[in-house]
Amino acid sequence: MTMSQLEIQNIDQTVLLWLDDLQKDTISAMRHHLQVGTKHDERDLVTNVDKANEQKINALIRSFDVNAKIVSEEGFGDKPTAMNGHVWFVDPIDGTMNFVKEHTDFAIMIALYVDNQPVLGWILDVVDNVVYHGGPKIGVFANQLRIQQPGDDSLAEGVVLLSGARLLYGMFGYDQIAKAALGYRVIGAAGPSFIRVITGQAVGYSSKMMPWDFAAGQVLAKTLGLIVSDIDGQALDMLSSNIVLVATKRAHRDIVELHKS
Amino acid sequence: MTMSQLEIQNIDQTVLLWLDDLQKDTISAMRHHLQVGTKHDERDLVTNVDKANEQKINALIRSFDVNAKIVSEEGFGDKPTAMNGHVWFVDPIDGTMNFVKEHTDFAIMIALYVDNQPVLGWILDVVDNVVYHGGPKIGVFANQLRIQQPGDDSLAEGVVLLSGARLLYGMFGYDQIAKAALGYRVIGAAGPSFIRVITGQAVGYSSKMMPWDFAAGQVLAKTLGLIVSDIDGQALDMLSSNIVLVATKRAHRDIVELHKS
Q: Most buried one in A26, A32, A85, B227, CB count within 10 A?
């Protein structure tokens, strides 16, 4: 069943209220009581805030949208095997190393897909207190301000954002992409990188990502006429990891061609 | 002749007033009338704002400190061959590609050295409107707020910032430094990178730089107990390019050892 624009606006407003509370709690915890641990390896950090935020968000989703399934990073979600119905994606702290060490360039991300179609996405830049949010039915906003479709610069005309680890270890042809771009930057987190592409600061971004890393960014980017795919130009699998590429039309073509060659 | 603390505070306040005007003019020009050209190659950008800012700053310095010499980027300075007396360093837009393309992560930088000794430095984060300023006689401030000496994390415990172009082309052992660090980031400009080291967000930063790129950062970093040298651990030549390294004591030792091996 398709949702009306009014229903979608109501969901958007509800999640914005959740994020308003989460922003304050996350800043306070960052300054006063951060406990840092590791997951798969010494560079894969997790904190008490990642876990607490995910538990809070997932509980809010479950009481708001009782039949929904949740795909989330820290283990408090479901593990759906299909994209039918309402599926929410939650990244409670995107860019945990930046959160812990740099105290900037991290985000909280939420997305809603219905029957595998992108409906709404939210990327909260926690330190600047700006939420990038919206979807195909309502457009994209930075807080209250509508974001216009970015320009269509080519790879050679713009800055590209890449995963530092993959570039360093020679993966996915990232060195060729970096050399062909006007310049490249390594931000170290998906949300802040998606924000820069959405706002036209960068012409593209690529990294290997899990669904909670790209779900919200994909909603916002596609709504603004950007291309989101895997690095070969194929549609993303919403339930597994992908080598994600988001870019302007021209930069997307440049990067996919470079990757094939 | 040594300057008193009061004289130094007066110079600091004077330059802060200059920067207050420059901040407004630079933001306005970025939004409304940016003309972009290139210098040595297609990635070496220069704008009308780089040139106008340098002419303004140099004129202010010349009327304020009549016997001083000026080392600046865009050709309106002197070309001193010695560091005796008052020498000012001016970078009218540090990170011009970021200024033009990303509209963030760029700076205006000014520094004063007297008889080759660091006296005062100013790094203006233009978009956030924060000036990092001070020197050994007065300490370091972010606007009015005093900055404390950052911690002494090692390379393996922290984020290191590197020049993207030099890393990409395998120069200066940057790949080994990146691999040994907890993580690395590429910001694309010296001022914003120095700010992250000074505030403890990163444990180190290295790039090949001209004097106007590192003069202000060196004053602030040394005042806060950080180590500034070339990548071999030697003192910087203030009148030529250097492979600059600024880092915590422990990360500095880690990086110099890696570079030698």
A: A26
